[in-house]
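Sharing a chain and its predicted structure for anyone who wants a worked example. Both blocks are below, sequence first, C-alpha cells second.
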Amino acid sequence: MIYDAQARKDYKAQARADIRKKFWPTIGAVILASIPLALMSIIMSIGTEGFYTLGDASSLDAVVSVYGKFAQYSLLYLVIYFFVGSPITFGAKHYYVARARGESSTVGLIFQPFTSGKSYLTSLKLSLSIGIRSLGWLVIVCVIALVGLIPLFAFSPADNVGSGAFFLFFTIYFVVVCVVSVWASVKMRRYDGAYICLIDTPDASVWQATGACAKIFKKHNWELMVFDLSFLLWNCLTAITFGVVGLYVIPYQEIAFVHYFDALCGRTPEPAEEPSLSE
C-alpha cells in the first residue's frame, strides 16, 4: 500500500462524502453515543470537587479525605464505564464502519451490544484487552517522566532554579516526555483497529485481534501519527467550541480511520495482506 499525503487526503475526502450522504443521522448518532458518556463524566467532576479547596485544607485528614473521595469516584467511574461505556464505544465503532463501507447503518447499531449477550461480552473483553496492552506503554511514559524528575530536584535551591542549566535541562526533559508520550499514544492507537477486526470476524479472540492490529501497523506507526495529527486543528476547534464541532469531527476522524485501516488490510483496490487472527 502506498501511503502519502494524497492518500491521506483521499481517505479524509471519502469520510466527508460518507458523512454528507447521511449528515443529520450521523450527527444524531454521535449525540446519542455521547450523552451516556457525558453523564458518566459527571461522576469524575464530583470526585474532583475537593481539589478546588485543597489549598485551604487545615489538616492532613482533610487532604486524605479529598484524595479518598477522588479515588472512590474514579473507581466508580471506571466500573460504570467498563460495563456501560465499553458496549457503547463498540457499538459506535460498528456504526462508523457501516457508514464507511456503505452498509446499513442505523443508530440502533450503537446500542446493539446491549441486545446481544455475545456482542456485549465481546465489547467488555475487548476493552479489557486494549487496556492491558496499553498499560505497558503508559508505564514506560510514567517511568521516563519520573526518572527525569530526579535530576531536576538537584536544581531545587532557589539560586539554581533560574539558572541557564536548569532551563536547558527542563526544556530537554519536557521535549523528551512529549515525544515519548506521542510515541506511546500512537502505539495505543493501533489497537482501535481491533474493533474493526472483531466487527468483521465476531468469533475471533479479542487478544489475537489486538495483537493482529499491532502487526498490521508494524511498519506504519509514523503514518498513523501523521494521520492523527492531520486532525489537530479540528480537535482544537472542538476544544474551543466546548465539543460542539466534535459532533462532526468524531465521525469524520473515525470514518477516515476505517478507510485507512481497510486500505492497510487490502479491502480497497490497493493490495495489502492482513495478518491472520489465528496467528
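Comments welcome. DSSP finds eleven helices and no strands in the chain.
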